[in-house]
Specification:
- The protein is an alpha/beta fold.
- The protein folds into two domains: about 10-25 and about 295-400, Aspartate Aminotransferase, domain 1, CATH 3.90.1150.10; about 40-290, 3-Layer(aba) Sandwich (Aspartate Aminotransferase, domain 2), CATH 3.40.640.
- Helices cover about 40% and strands about 15% of the residues.
- It contains 14 helices and 15 strands.
- The chain has helices at about 10-20, 35-45, 60-80, 90-100, 125-135, 150-155, 180-190, 210, 235-240, 275-290, 295-315, 340-350, 360-365, 385-400, and strands at about 25, 85-90, 110-115, 135-140, 160-170, 195, 215-220, 230-235, 255, 260-265, 320, 330-335, 350, 355, 370-375.
- It has a seven-stranded mixed beta sheet with strand order 2-8-7-6-5-3-4. Strands 11-12-15-14 form a four-stranded antiparallel beta sheet, covered by helices on one side. Strands 1-13 form a two-stranded parallel sheet.
- A hairpin with a 2-residue loop joins strand 9 and strand 10 (about 260-265).
- The two termini are about 30 Å apart.
- The model has no long low-confidence stretch (mean pLDDT about 95).
- The structure holds pyridoxal-5'-phosphate.
């Protein structure tokens, strides 16, 4: 069955790459952008740029209105109770660092932070470094064979010293959903805060932060077909009140004197300096675009393509899949073949996939691997892309074996 993507032509980047002979299968690293996002970027700059929240003039007012409209859209997208619960950051990584500094005073020496064994460095290293600064213990929740956190072991490891859980919703290597509701409930029973890394999860389906019951939820715009340099941090009202300020500068103060300052509450108190204005506005256009698509058709297309990808990989000898991916990506190694050599040959044939440790070095180490090749899909991919990939893969493996 052929699987054309009805949305492919909405993405000039995909068409440009195709014209260059490139097959883009690295959307989990960053996604291509629809025309609507390019239009929004050009529209903002073309109409006259202005800073937000500080000028009364017309362009300033217009920019502020468009910027704040995105806050409303992100809140609606995640089902946050209020737009003021959305803090714009420069990406998911900055949001985790914001949290690791902003929550520092919550911890006493000997307290514990629990992460999964599958965390991206972005949701691991800020906590690891916080643990080192404050004498905390970083507890690693083990995974089952499919890559999901083992809930029985998690229940044993999450205890009265656990002050915070930091868990990715969807692993960027293993492609499986974590049992977040259960984990958050385990943490809550011990009074622990929960941080959800939605960098990959937010791209697939809609997620309701209130239903999840998490304290914080983080994502980057660029993986969700939006511009780079922008991220969002959702916080429950109570959790945001516990967050200390971490970056200081313009627009985040209520009042300031030479020896004294008072800071604003969320969201502006956590958005020091000029924010990525064009990016935030274009993130709004991204959500408008995605919101206008038939969500069931998108997830159906992604699921069918993913099944085809998994079937193609499992039909080939010597390919070992990492975990049991449920959505949009597959990481694999090939017996007797170095992942960098394979990626090199695929690159030579115009196939854009990712190889290496995927910013999850501890996970790869725990699997006894130096790296893996990852194919990841976006809503613009179709089965022609997969055919090109498999043709290139077969040729590469013939050479390497
Ligand atoms: C699961 C996960 N978390 C966090 C990040 C970090 O996102 P960013 O580099 O946009 O800050 C990534 C990026 O690959 C990711 O896949």
């Amino acid at each position: 069955m052929s699987l054309p993507s009805p949305w492919r032509t909405d993405f000039p980047g995909i068409l440009a790459l195709e014209a260059e002979g490139q097959t883009y299968l690295d959307s989990a690293a960053t996604a291509q952008k629809p025309q609507a996002v390019l239009d929004a970027l050009l529209g903002y700059y073309g109409a006259g740029a202005a800073n937000v929240h500080r000028a009364q003039h017309l362009p300033g007012e217009r920019a502020t209105r468009a910027f704040e409209a995105t806050r409303d859209k992100v809140a609606t997208w995640l089902n946050a109770a209020e737009p003021s619960q959305i803090v714009f950051t420069r990406g998911a990584t900055e949001a985790f660092n914001l949290l690791a500094y902003g929550l520092e005073s919550e911890f006493q020496a000997g307290d514990e932070i629990a992460v999964s064994a599958a965390e991206h460095h972005a949701n691991l290293l800020p906590w690891q470094q916080l643990a080192q600064r404050r004498g905390l213990k970083l507890v690693v929740l083990p995974l089952d064979d499919g890559g999901r956190i083992d809930l029985q072991r998690a229940a044993e490891l999450i205890g009265p010293r656990t002050r915070l859980l930091a868990i990715s919703q969807l692993s960027n290597v293993l492609g499986c959903w974590q049992p977040l509701a259960e984990l958050i409930a385990l943490g809550k029973a011990q009074g622990a805060l929960s941080v959800v890394d939605g960098a990959q999860g937010v791209v697939h389906g809609r997620h309701d932060v209130q239903a999840l019951g998490c304290d914080f939820y983080v994502f980057s715009s660029h993986k969700l077909y939006g511009p780079d340099g922008v991220g969002a941090l959702y916080g429950s009202r109570a959790a945001l009140r516990r967050l200390g300020h971490w970056q200081y500068g313009g627009e985040m103060v209520r009042l300031a004197d030479y020896q004294y300052a008072e800071f604003r509450d969320a969201p502006l108190g956590f958005e020091a300096g000029t924010p990525p204005i064009a990016g935030v506005i274009a993130l709004g256009a991204t959500l408008d675009y995605l919101g206008g698509l038939d969500a069931a058709a998108v997830s159906g297309h992604e699921a069918a393509l993913h099944l085809k990808l998994l079937a193609g990989l499992s039909a080939r000898d010597g390919i070992q899949l990492l975990g049991a991916p449920r959505v949009a990506l597959a990481s694999f190694v090939v017996e007797g073949v170095h992942n960098a050599d394979l990626a090199h040959l695929l690159t030579e044939q115009g196939i854009a996939v990712r190889a290496g440790h995927h910013c999850a070095m501890p996970l790869l180490n725990s699997l006894g691997l130096a790296g893996a090749v990852r194919v990841s899909l976006g809503l613009y991919n179709d089965d022609t892309d997969l055919q090109r990939f498999f043709t290139a893969l077969d040729q590469a493996l013939e050479l390497l074996r």
